[in-house]
Amino acid sequence: MAYSTGTIAKGCFGKVYKEKYNDTWAAIKRVPQQLISRKDLERECKVYNKANHPNIVKLLGNISLKDGKWVIPLEFIFGEDLETTIFKASKSKITLSPSVKGTIIVGMCEGLAFLHSRDIVHQDLKPENIMVEHDTNRAVIIDLGLAKFFRFGLNSAIDMGNEAYSAPEVLQRGSQRDQRSDVWAMGKMIAELCARIRLYTPSVCPAKIKEILKDQPYCHAVCRMVEADPSLRASMGGVMNEIRKAAGAGVANDAPVQKDHLKLPSPHTNARNRSPSPVNRGASPANRDPSPMNRAPSPFNRDASPMNRAPSPFNRDASPMNRAPSPFKRDASPMNRAPSPFNRDPSPHNVSPSPLKWERTPRPEFKAVRAQAAAHISPQRLEDKKKKQALVPSGGSDITQDLMKMKLYQEAAKDLPCSLPTTGRVVVRRFQEKDGEVETWEQKEVVTRGGKIVKFDDIKFNSK
């Protein structure tokens, strides 16, 4: 295999070339043999094999050793990195409309959520490690060289991520990187993508995000992702639904609004140019006969009503507007030729009633029927009904909110080995292995403060 003349990437562990591999273009990563041990190489291969997802770069074949360098064939993405898309607009080929932003954000979040479901921590999330495909705007997470397996607090790689996208607990306390630090980095990238500005890492917090994003649809989700306290920070599984809804809102805002149907008809519309709207249906089959549906005086035919006796702009005989058969004065239309009950003679008794004086038909009285039905209810049923009503909290508009809080509390306390504390954090993890791999994995996390639930995550994964 011949080397390509151009290097498409260069990092601390080697270079990446665009080359042909098995009749397809590939990103060939070449790492000097002395820079990476076989153990780390095997771990990287295992990460790629377990991370089979459309938003994660694929390993195309086996890793080989050639000319003292490890050769790693990876999927080639025909696009640009997110760093170029956000901060180098003059070089970027992507127009960041709301729908395109939504596609990119959902894609990279889906990829990270899949990595976390496989107990994989990326460790080095940054705009340079997100590729965006030009034709589809598909976001792809690349460079899993520093990714590690994180199970039960045990790491399979050292912490070497970028400080510019490191969570506060990593920078301040030197804590090891885990899924929560990945979430923080992803939240910062989403904020930078929406605002098109580089954020100063120590300043990133929910208050700063609210100041920058304001009423943008991703604001609330990103605030949850950049919480300084990792125990209160949302997981990727916990924010995915909100991210998808925000992306849908962006697509809806991006769609063109059709306003033609909101235009009022022109007062100069003549008989030849009448549209088939209810205002201008002059000679349609539905209006040829004096059916009961057409006998009622419409608001446009009140010739003798008190509202139209004054010389309004629509009834002036000498004005240009009334020389043509306008839709507001259709005296010769089929609707007005028939002697309707309201227009038989011009006597005061037969003047068509104004809509302002129309009387509604009185509603039927159901009190007697309800009283008779209530008489047949047994005392036992009445007593049961009263008990059920007693369980519903009073407060009118607060009933739905109280029921939702009660349901959330019951759902959060379900399957927990202990009752929820007034203030504290309860985490339960369950997993099942088969053939050396995790087959099912569940995690429930509940954080309470002052008797209220402030965080609740329930994540389940099944590889079957």
Question: Can you offer a commentary on this structure?
Answer:
- With 464 residues, the chain is an alpha+beta fold.
- The chain is 31% helix and 18% strand.
- The protein has 14 helices and 14 strands.
- It has helices at 38-50, 82-87, 98-117, 168-173, 179-195, 206-213, 219-225, 236-254, 292-295, 306-309, 334-337, 367-375, 379-391, 399-413, and strands spanning 7-11, 14-21, 24-32, 64-66, 69-75, 79-81, 120-121, 130-133, 139-141, 148-151, 154-155, 424-434, 437-449, 452-462.
- Strands 1-2-3-5-4 form a 5-stranded antiparallel β-sheet, with no helix packed on it. Strands 6-8-9 form a 3-stranded antiparallel β-sheet. It has a 3-stranded antiparallel β-sheet with strand order 7-10-11.
- A hairpin with a 5-residue loop joins strand 8 and strand 9.
- Mean pLDDT is 74; it is low at 1-6, 255-294, 296-322, 331-338, 345-352, 354-358, 366-371 and 390-397.
Protein topology:
Blueprint lengths: L6 E5 L2 E8 L2 E9 L5 H13 L13 E3 L2 E7 L3 E3 H6 L10 H20 L2 E2 L8 E4 L5 E3 L6 E4 L2 E2 L12 H6 L5 H17 L10 H8 L5 H7 L10 H19 L37 H4 L10 H4 L24 H4 L29 H9 L3 H13 L7 H15 L10 E11 L2 E13 L2 E11 L2
Antiparallel strand pairs: 1-2, 2-3, 3-5, 4-5, 6-8, 7-10, 8-9, 10-11, 12-13, 13-14
Throw out a few tags for this protein.
464 residues, alpha+beta, five-stranded antiparallel beta sheet, three-stranded antiparallel beta sheet, globular
Task: Tell me briefly what this model is.
This protein has 464 residues and is α+β, with helices and mostly antiparallel strands.
